[in-house]
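Budget justification aside, the reviewers requested a transparent look at the raw inputs and outputs of the sequence design task funded under Objective 1. We therefore reproduce one unedited record. The lines immediately below are the structure tokens for a 179-residue chain.
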């Protein structure tokens, strides 16, 4: 059975178990190639703007933060980068924003959920107590994930965007640097 998402065909109901590892600053070329392959719809859902073309060095540096200001996790299937998750401390160092993006053909297969768990465990291990997720109000994947992971999350609407805030409840362990 297959389905078409953003113009790309993919199998349905296939749960994936990605190999996860902490991102490094040297992953910039790998991450750039991954982001360039995203559909315009997926790129917009993640960045809330059109990215178009290879990402800038400044964007890549922001997506690969070094601790203690943040962290990133990469997800691989069969050696291919298929997902990126990020946490970045906000003004209050006990609060971090998280963001996740998954390759189009691997969406709705559990990759984003695995990345979310790993990035939350990592930020908890680094002393973060509360999480914020910023998305468009029509991003159903984010709404579903937050509803499952944090049913008591507070949602603040601001025009076409929503910010979800909830307690960081993860295991206190950081993500391995090797997978």
């Amino acid at each position: 059975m297959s389905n078409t998402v953003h113009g790309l065909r993919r199998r349905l109901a296939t749960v994936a178990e990605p190999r996860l590892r902490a991102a490094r600053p040297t992953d910039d070329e790998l991450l750039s190639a991954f982001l360039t392959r995203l559909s315009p719809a997926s790129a917009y859902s993640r960045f809330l703007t059109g990215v178009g073309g290879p990402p800038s060095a400044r964007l890549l540096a922001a997506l690969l933060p070094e601790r203690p200001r943040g962290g990133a996790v990469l997800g691989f299937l069969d050696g291919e980068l298929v997902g990126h998750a990020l946490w970045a401390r906000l003004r209050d160092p006990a609060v971090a924003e998280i963001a996740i993006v998954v390759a189009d053909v691997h969406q709705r297969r559990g990759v984003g959920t695995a990345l979310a768990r790993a990035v939350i465990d990592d930020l908890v291990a680094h002393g973060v107590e509360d999480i914020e997720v910023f998305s468009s109000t029509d991003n159903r994947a984010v709404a579903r994930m937050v509803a499952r992971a944090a049913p008591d999350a507070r949602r603040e609407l601001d025009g076409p965007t929503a910010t979800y805030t909830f307690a960081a409840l993860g295991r206190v362990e950081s993500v391995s640097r090797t997978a």
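The chain has a mean pLDDT of 90. The CA atoms of residues 124 and 169 lie 7 Å apart. Computational costs for records of this kind are itemized in the attached budget.
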